[in-house]
Amino acid sequence: MFKGIATILLLVVSNAFMTLAWYGHIAFKSKLERFGILAIVLLSWGIALFEYCFQVPANRIGSAEFGGPFSIWELKVIQEVVSLSVFTVFALVFMKSDTLRWNHLAGFLCLILAVYFIFRK
């Protein structure tokens, strides 16, 4: 139980860093627009380093290969759901130009179905 919860928490932190690395330069355009693309790429790589510092341990702790509760398939679908959940919060809080629409919710429903089918024994 602890390994499962630790895995999910580490994935949430990991995805928070990755979302910031991938989309932060868009959300914080006014603060970063004076920098060129090379500087933004390097900044994103620096942020992504922290993503890996949480992602790799999450996968190792959670993997059944290392005594964790999840198969590699389950880890991947958990990561996708966490990633989309973290992105949704980020978009709603920082990206005021975009709104959450019905088709986004339909996509989330498809992910929930993916979780159901992947975890089905």
TrEMBL record:
The keyword Transmembrane helix applies. InterPro entries: DUF486. This is DMT family protein. Pfam families: DMT_6. Keywords: Membrane, Transmembrane, Transmembrane helix. It comes from the Bacteria. The chain crosses the membrane at residues 6-23, 35-57, 77-95, 102-119. The lineage of its organism: Bacteria, Pseudomonadati, Bacteroidota, Bacteroidia, Bacteroidales.
